[in-house]
Automatic annotation (TrEMBL):
Name assigned to this protein: Adenine DNA glycosylase
Tagged with keyword Glycoprotein: no
Function: Adenine glycosylase active on G-A mispairs. MutY also corrects error-prone DNA synthesis past GO lesions which are due to the oxidatively damaged form of guanine: 7,8-dihydro-8-oxoguanine (8-oxo-dGTP).
GO molecular function: purine-specific mismatch base pair DNA N-glycosylase activity
Alphabetical list of SMART domains matching this protein: ENDO3c (SM00478)
Keywords: 4Fe-4S, DNA damage, DNA repair, Glycosidase, Hydrolase, Iron, Iron-sulfur, Metal-binding
UniProt similarity note: Belongs to the Nth/MutY family.
Catalysed reactions, semicolon-separated: Hydrolyzes free adenine bases from 7,8-dihydro-8-oxoguanine:adenine mismatched double-stranded DNA, leaving an apurinic site
One Pfam family it belongs to: HHH
């Protein structure tokens, strides 16, 4: 892959005229604020992130505030963004920064990478944008720009190809205006060099883009070899409602899907709701009402969910304090909830109105 001249100057000139400069995390570019935005933006669109970012920063304006917060509070602010390990790692990293590093971000990419949940590209973005460090990034947008520009013929997920693209990213990284260049490359991929329908005619790199010279620039980056169809799983989720109209919630283990979030009692799709409730909770069932079934898709499988509202009397079984609790619907919505659980409770609230 042959590098070309004047790559960075063209990108920066485009950014000066067309780049995004009014995003909330661009207004006060501290390492903390940039870090939060970069973690939120992983696998999530900018328009989705903005309201979450405003709410998060209002509650946790400093790394000290984030470190002092309970994990439940952090996850509640993350509810709906998905990939909850990001939030758990961010909370751990905040504690590490406060307890071990005097609340100061490390000066080097290698040092930032030692924090939980931060890889090379994210660390480089934090330091280049907030401190002007000459550190190249290779996120999804930048990969797409470079893969198209050079018509990279192999999948970027292959180690050899990834290393070659890192070399290109570092070569093009200018010594000056590092933060602007990082933002410019992300903007270029997000707004012009998009996955479908790239706007090649107004791209500052169009003249030398090898992907543009092919009949279909969208063939780059080369797609990952197809895997077999996603497996499917089925579960039942129970909305146990007591005589005070409270919902019984249980906190999931830290590892696994929905780790650390509050969820609803779960059972296999073929299990009997009556037997499960009576045996596990030692209570009397007043009424069972099936709710609308739906599918929730994870990165690696489909989950078919069959929810039921089960009205019960008092629970005689003994459960571990802090792991199982009754909440009103109003209280439940303030918890860190998996998106499907929030959907179920929202539907229940709407049908109860």
């Amino acid at each position: 892959m042959q590098a070309v001249e004047n790559f960075a100057p063209r990108v920066l000139a485009w950014f000066d005229e067309f780049g995004r400069k009014n995003l909330p995390w661009q207004q006060e570019k501290t390492p903390y604020r940039v870090w939060i935005s970069e973690i939120m933006l992983q696998q999530t669109q900018v328009t989705t992130v903005i309201p979450y970012y405003h709410k998060f920063m209002a509650s946790f304006p400093t790394v000290e505030a984030l470190a002092a917060a309970e994990q439940d509070e952090v996850l509640a602010h993350w509810s709906g963004l998905g990939y909850y390990a990001r939030a758990r790692n961010m909370h751990k990293a905040a504690k590490m920064l406060v307890d071990e590093l005097d609340s100061e971000f490390p000066q080097s990419v290698e040092g930032v990478c030692e924090l939980p949940g931060i890889g090379r590209s994210t660390a480089s973005a934090i330091l280049s944008i907030s401190r002007g460090v000459q550190a190249a990034i290779l996120d999804g947008n930048v990969k797409r720009v470079l893969a198209r520009f050079h018509a990279v013929p192999t999948w970027p997920g292959e180690k050899k190809t990834e290393n070659a693209m890192w070399a290109l990213a570092e070569h093009y990284m200018p010594a000056q205006r590092c933060g602007d260049y990082t933002q410019a490359m992300m903007d270029l991929g997000a707004t012009l060099c998009t996955r479908s329908k790239p706007q090649c005619l107004i791209c500052p790199l169009e003249k030398d883009c090898l992907g543009r010279r092919t009949e279909d620039p969208t063939q780059f980056p080369i797609r990952k070899p197809k895997k077999a169809a996603k497996p499917e799983r089925s579960i039942q989720l129970l909305v146990l409602v007591n005589e005070d109209n409270q919902v019984f919630m249980e906190k999931r283990p830290q590892s696994g899907i929905w780790g650390g979030l509050w969820s609803l009692p779960e059972l296999a799709s073929e299990e009997s709701v009556v037997l499960h409730v009576e045996q596990r909770f030692q209570t009397h069932i007043h009424n069972i009402a099936p709710l609308s079934a739906f599918r929730h898709t994870f990165s690696h499988y489909h989950l078919d969910i069959e929810p039921s509202q089960v009205r019960i009397g008092s629970i005689d079984a003994v459960f571990e304090a802090g792991k199982y609790q009754w909440f009103s619907l109003h209280e439940a919505f303030d918890l860190g909830l998996p998106a499907p659980v929030r959907t179920i409770l929202t539907d229940l609230e709407n049908t109860s109105c």
